Amino acid sequence: MRWLELTVEAHNEAVEAVSEIFGRLGRGAAVRPTHLIRDPADELAVREDPSAPYLLTAHVPDDPEAPAAIESTERALWHLQAFGLGPIGKLRVARVDDGDWAEAWKRGYAPQRIGRVLIMPSWLDEPMAPGEVAIRLDPGMAFGTGLHPTTRGCVTLLQRVEPMPDRCLDVGTGSGILGLAALRLGVSRVIGLDTDPVAVTAATANALVNHLGDRFEARRGTVTVDADEAPFPLVLANLVAALLIDLSPALAANTSAKGTLIASGIIEPRGDEVLASLVAAGFRLVDRLDDGEWISLRLERGA
Length: 303
Prior knowledge:
This protein has eight helices and 16 strands. It has helices at about 15-25, 65-80, 100-105, 150-160, 175-185, 195-210, 240-255, 270-280; strands at about 1-10, 25-30, 35-40, 45-50, 55-60, 90-95, 110-115, 115-120, 135, 165-170, 190-195, 215-220, 230-240, 255-265, 285-290, 295-300. The strands form four sheets. It has a seven-stranded mixed sheet, with helices on both faces. A four-stranded antiparallel sheet has the order 2-5-1-6. The radius of gyration is 19 Å and the shape is globular. It starts with a strand and ends with a strand.
Protein backbone atom coordinates (compact mmCIF):
# COMPACT_ATOMS: atom_id res chain seq x y z
CA MET A 1 0.00 0.00 0.00
CA ARG A 2 1.16 3.54 -0.74
CA TRP A 3 0.69 6.56 1.46
CA LEU A 4 0.69 10.30 1.06
CA GLU A 5 2.89 12.16 3.52
CA LEU A 6 1.59 15.62 4.43
CA THR A 7 4.18 17.97 5.87
CA VAL A 8 4.01 21.54 7.12
CA GLU A 9 6.24 23.85 9.14
CA ALA A 10 4.64 25.87 11.93
CA HIS A 11 5.56 28.46 14.55
CA ASN A 12 5.45 27.25 18.16
CA GLU A 13 2.24 29.19 18.82
CA ALA A 14 0.45 27.27 16.05
CA VAL A 15 1.95 23.84 16.55
CA GLU A 16 -0.71 22.31 18.79
CA ALA A 17 -3.58 23.61 16.66
CA VAL A 18 -1.94 22.15 13.54
CA SER A 19 -1.19 18.97 15.47
CA GLU A 20 -4.88 18.59 16.29
CA ILE A 21 -5.82 18.96 12.62
CA PHE A 22 -3.22 16.39 11.59
CA GLY A 23 -4.06 14.08 14.49
CA ARG A 24 -7.66 13.79 13.33
CA LEU A 25 -6.66 13.44 9.68
CA GLY A 26 -4.71 10.24 9.35
CA ARG A 27 -2.23 7.75 10.73
CA GLY A 28 1.27 8.57 11.83
CA ALA A 29 0.58 12.16 12.78
CA ALA A 30 3.60 13.60 14.54
CA VAL A 31 5.35 16.75 15.62
CA ARG A 32 9.11 17.00 15.32
CA PRO A 33 10.55 19.91 17.32
CA THR A 34 13.38 20.84 14.96
CA HIS A 35 14.30 23.71 17.28
CA LEU A 36 15.62 21.14 19.79
CA ILE A 37 19.09 19.93 18.84
CA ARG A 38 20.93 17.34 20.89
CA ASP A 39 24.37 18.39 22.08
CA PRO A 40 26.84 15.73 20.87
CA ALA A 41 29.13 16.50 23.82
CA ASP A 42 26.48 15.78 26.47
CA GLU A 43 23.89 13.04 26.11
CA LEU A 44 21.60 14.80 28.60
CA ALA A 45 21.78 18.21 26.93
CA VAL A 46 19.53 19.56 24.22
CA ARG A 47 20.12 23.07 22.98
CA GLU A 48 17.38 25.22 21.51
CA ASP A 49 17.31 27.07 18.21
CA PRO A 50 14.35 29.45 18.68
CA SER A 51 14.42 30.51 15.04
CA ALA A 52 13.68 26.99 13.78
CA PRO A 53 10.06 26.01 13.10
CA TYR A 54 8.36 22.80 14.11
CA LEU A 55 7.89 20.16 11.44
CA LEU A 56 4.53 18.38 11.46
CA THR A 57 3.66 15.33 9.40
CA ALA A 58 0.64 13.11 8.83
CA HIS A 59 -0.03 10.18 6.54
CA VAL A 60 -3.18 9.30 4.62
CA PRO A 61 -3.81 6.38 2.27
CA ASP A 62 -3.12 7.17 -1.37
CA ASP A 63 -6.65 6.37 -2.48
CA PRO A 64 -9.58 8.17 -4.16
CA GLU A 65 -10.50 9.91 -0.89
CA ALA A 66 -7.05 11.51 -0.52
CA PRO A 67 -7.69 14.67 -2.61
CA ALA A 68 -10.67 15.63 -0.45
CA ALA A 69 -8.64 15.02 2.73
CA ILE A 70 -5.81 17.21 1.44
CA GLU A 71 -8.20 19.97 0.40
CA SER A 72 -9.92 20.01 3.81
CA THR A 73 -6.54 20.12 5.52
CA GLU A 74 -5.38 23.06 3.43
CA ARG A 75 -8.64 24.85 4.21
CA ALA A 76 -8.26 24.22 7.95
CA LEU A 77 -4.67 25.49 7.93
CA TRP A 78 -5.78 28.60 6.05
CA HIS A 79 -8.40 29.30 8.70
CA LEU A 80 -5.77 28.95 11.45
CA GLN A 81 -3.79 31.77 9.87
CA ALA A 82 -6.76 34.05 10.42
CA PHE A 83 -6.33 33.63 14.18
CA GLY A 84 -2.82 35.05 14.05
CA LEU A 85 -1.21 32.04 15.70
CA GLY A 86 2.15 32.56 14.03
CA PRO A 87 3.48 31.54 10.62
CA ILE A 88 2.29 28.27 9.10
CA GLY A 89 4.12 27.09 6.00
CA LYS A 90 2.79 25.63 2.78
CA LEU A 91 1.37 22.13 2.98
CA ARG A 92 3.64 19.71 1.12
CA VAL A 93 2.50 16.30 -0.16
CA ALA A 94 4.74 13.38 -1.14
CA ARG A 95 4.16 9.69 -1.85
CA VAL A 96 5.87 7.15 0.41
CA ASP A 97 5.96 3.36 0.46
CA ASP A 98 4.12 1.35 3.08
CA GLY A 99 7.31 0.38 4.89
CA ASP A 100 8.74 3.90 5.10
CA TRP A 101 6.18 6.17 6.74
CA ALA A 102 5.86 4.46 10.11
CA GLU A 103 9.47 5.06 11.12
CA ALA A 104 10.70 7.98 9.05
CA TRP A 105 9.22 10.77 11.19
CA LYS A 106 10.82 9.41 14.36
CA ARG A 107 14.37 10.03 13.20
CA GLY A 108 16.17 12.80 15.01
CA TYR A 109 13.44 13.38 17.58
CA ALA A 110 14.81 14.89 20.79
CA PRO A 111 12.88 14.52 24.06
CA GLN A 112 11.97 17.70 25.91
CA ARG A 113 13.16 18.77 29.32
CA ILE A 114 11.10 21.28 31.26
CA GLY A 115 13.04 21.74 34.47
CA ARG A 116 13.33 18.25 35.88
CA VAL A 117 10.35 16.90 33.92
CA LEU A 118 11.38 14.86 30.89
CA ILE A 119 8.77 14.34 28.18
CA MET A 120 9.75 11.51 25.85
CA PRO A 121 8.06 9.28 23.29
CA SER A 122 7.41 5.59 23.71
CA TRP A 123 10.16 4.45 21.33
CA LEU A 124 13.08 6.15 23.13
CA ASP A 125 15.00 5.22 26.25
CA GLU A 126 16.50 8.50 27.35
CA PRO A 127 19.25 8.75 29.99
CA MET A 128 17.97 10.72 32.96
CA ALA A 129 19.76 13.00 35.37
CA PRO A 130 19.32 12.56 39.15
CA GLY A 131 16.01 14.00 40.30
CA GLU A 132 14.38 13.95 36.88
CA VAL A 133 10.96 12.41 36.34
CA ALA A 134 9.66 11.10 33.02
CA ILE A 135 6.35 11.25 31.18
CA ARG A 136 5.81 8.99 28.18
CA LEU A 137 3.87 10.96 25.58
CA ASP A 138 4.13 10.40 21.85
CA PRO A 139 4.35 13.58 19.77
CA GLY A 140 1.43 14.35 17.57
CA MET A 141 -1.27 13.79 20.17
CA ALA A 142 -4.16 16.11 19.41
CA PHE A 143 -4.00 17.75 22.82
CA GLY A 144 -1.01 18.86 24.79
CA THR A 145 2.37 17.62 23.60
CA GLY A 146 4.41 19.90 25.85
CA LEU A 147 5.52 21.98 22.88
CA HIS A 148 3.35 25.02 23.46
CA PRO A 149 4.65 27.86 25.67
CA THR A 150 1.57 27.62 27.90
CA THR A 151 2.22 23.94 28.63
CA ARG A 152 5.87 24.65 29.38
CA GLY A 153 4.84 27.53 31.65
CA CYS A 154 2.45 25.35 33.63
CA VAL A 155 5.00 22.56 34.07
CA THR A 156 7.62 25.09 35.17
CA LEU A 157 5.30 26.71 37.73
CA LEU A 158 4.15 23.30 38.93
CA GLN A 159 7.71 22.55 39.99
CA ARG A 160 7.65 25.63 42.25
CA VAL A 161 4.74 24.34 44.35
CA GLU A 162 6.02 23.30 47.77
CA PRO A 163 5.00 21.13 49.41
CA MET A 164 3.23 19.18 46.69
CA PRO A 165 -0.35 18.49 47.86
CA ASP A 166 -2.11 15.14 47.77
CA ARG A 167 -4.96 16.05 45.36
CA CYS A 168 -5.09 17.97 42.09
CA LEU A 169 -7.79 19.05 39.63
CA ASP A 170 -6.72 19.48 36.00
CA VAL A 171 -9.30 21.57 34.12
CA GLY A 172 -9.11 21.13 30.34
CA THR A 173 -6.83 18.14 30.78
CA GLY A 174 -6.30 17.45 27.04
CA SER A 175 -3.64 14.75 26.77
CA GLY A 176 -3.35 14.71 30.57
CA ILE A 177 0.20 16.03 30.41
CA LEU A 178 -0.16 18.48 33.32
CA GLY A 179 -1.95 16.01 35.55
CA LEU A 180 0.66 13.35 34.79
CA ALA A 181 3.44 15.83 35.58
CA ALA A 182 1.74 16.63 38.90
CA LEU A 183 1.64 12.92 39.76
CA ARG A 184 5.29 12.44 38.88
CA LEU A 185 6.18 15.44 41.06
CA GLY A 186 4.43 14.07 44.14
CA VAL A 187 0.65 14.51 43.92
CA SER A 188 -1.21 11.37 44.98
CA ARG A 189 -4.40 11.66 42.90
CA VAL A 190 -5.53 13.74 39.91
CA ILE A 191 -8.97 14.30 38.43
CA GLY A 192 -8.80 15.60 34.86
CA LEU A 193 -11.79 17.36 33.30
CA ASP A 194 -12.36 18.02 29.61
CA THR A 195 -15.46 18.77 27.56
CA ASP A 196 -14.10 16.82 24.58
CA PRO A 197 -14.62 13.03 24.82
CA VAL A 198 -11.60 12.47 22.54
CA ALA A 199 -9.42 14.24 25.08
CA VAL A 200 -10.86 12.16 27.93
CA THR A 201 -10.00 8.99 26.01
CA ALA A 202 -6.48 10.26 25.19
CA ALA A 203 -5.77 11.31 28.79
CA THR A 204 -6.95 7.95 30.12
CA ALA A 205 -4.76 6.10 27.63
CA ASN A 206 -1.72 8.23 28.48
CA ALA A 207 -2.21 7.62 32.20
CA LEU A 208 -2.21 3.87 31.55
CA VAL A 209 0.92 4.07 29.38
CA ASN A 210 2.65 5.84 32.28
CA HIS A 211 1.38 3.25 34.81
CA LEU A 212 -0.61 5.98 36.56
CA GLY A 213 -4.10 4.80 35.64
CA ASP A 214 -5.00 4.04 39.24
CA ARG A 215 -4.20 7.61 40.31
CA PHE A 216 -5.50 9.60 37.34
CA GLU A 217 -9.21 9.82 36.57
CA ALA A 218 -10.34 11.61 33.41
CA ARG A 219 -13.94 12.83 33.30
CA ARG A 220 -16.00 14.62 30.69
CA GLY A 221 -17.11 18.01 31.98
CA THR A 222 -15.84 21.26 33.45
CA VAL A 223 -15.79 23.13 36.74
CA THR A 224 -18.90 24.66 38.27
CA VAL A 225 -19.52 26.84 41.30
CA ASP A 226 -21.50 23.97 42.85
CA ALA A 227 -18.56 21.56 42.99
CA ASP A 228 -19.22 17.82 43.37
CA GLU A 229 -15.85 17.23 45.05
CA ALA A 230 -14.27 18.89 48.06
CA PRO A 231 -12.08 21.83 47.01
CA PHE A 232 -8.62 20.89 45.75
CA PRO A 233 -5.35 22.21 47.18
CA LEU A 234 -3.98 22.37 43.60
CA VAL A 235 -5.92 23.32 40.46
CA LEU A 236 -4.43 23.45 36.94
CA ALA A 237 -6.23 25.38 34.20
CA ASN A 238 -4.44 25.68 30.86
CA LEU A 239 -7.36 27.12 28.89
CA VAL A 240 -7.77 30.42 27.04
CA ALA A 241 -8.26 33.94 28.39
CA ALA A 242 -12.01 34.08 27.77
CA LEU A 243 -12.62 30.77 29.53
CA LEU A 244 -10.45 31.69 32.49
CA ILE A 245 -12.45 34.88 32.93
CA ASP A 246 -15.79 33.08 32.65
CA LEU A 247 -14.69 30.27 34.98
CA SER A 248 -12.96 32.44 37.60
CA PRO A 249 -15.72 31.98 40.24
CA ALA A 250 -15.89 28.23 39.56
CA LEU A 251 -12.10 27.88 39.74
CA ALA A 252 -12.16 29.67 43.09
CA ALA A 253 -14.96 27.41 44.34
CA ASN A 254 -12.89 24.34 43.45
CA THR A 255 -9.67 25.62 45.04
CA SER A 256 -9.26 25.17 48.78
CA ALA A 257 -8.31 28.04 51.10
CA LYS A 258 -4.58 28.76 50.68
CA GLY A 259 -4.67 26.41 47.69
CA THR A 260 -2.78 27.00 44.45
CA LEU A 261 -4.16 27.74 40.99
CA ILE A 262 -1.86 27.52 37.99
CA ALA A 263 -3.51 29.22 35.03
CA SER A 264 -2.28 29.59 31.47
CA GLY A 265 -3.37 29.84 27.86
CA ILE A 266 -3.31 33.62 28.30
CA ILE A 267 -2.28 35.78 25.37
CA GLU A 268 -0.29 38.79 26.58
CA PRO A 269 -2.80 41.54 25.60
CA ARG A 270 -5.41 39.93 27.87
CA GLY A 271 -3.12 39.19 30.78
CA ASP A 272 -4.27 42.07 32.99
CA GLU A 273 -7.92 41.29 32.28
CA VAL A 274 -7.52 37.64 33.27
CA LEU A 275 -5.56 38.49 36.39
CA ALA A 276 -8.15 41.07 37.47
CA SER A 277 -10.92 38.49 37.10
CA LEU A 278 -9.04 35.90 39.15
CA VAL A 279 -8.18 38.44 41.85
CA ALA A 280 -11.84 39.46 42.02
CA ALA A 281 -12.71 35.78 42.54
CA GLY A 282 -10.44 35.61 45.58
CA PHE A 283 -6.96 34.77 44.29
CA ARG A 284 -3.70 36.66 44.75
CA LEU A 285 -0.77 36.52 42.34
CA VAL A 286 2.29 34.60 43.54
CA ASP A 287 4.32 34.09 40.36
CA ARG A 288 4.17 34.94 36.67
CA LEU A 289 6.02 33.57 33.65
CA ASP A 290 6.18 35.25 30.24
CA ASP A 291 7.12 33.15 27.20
CA GLY A 292 6.86 35.20 24.05
CA GLU A 293 3.27 36.36 23.78
CA TRP A 294 1.99 33.87 26.35
CA ILE A 295 1.54 34.25 30.11
CA SER A 296 1.33 31.63 32.85
CA LEU A 297 0.25 32.50 36.40
CA ARG A 298 0.59 30.89 39.81
CA LEU A 299 -1.95 32.18 42.30
CA GLU A 300 -3.09 31.44 45.83
CA ARG A 301 -6.67 31.52 47.01
CA GLY A 302 -7.39 33.56 50.11
CA ALA A 303 -8.60 32.02 53.33
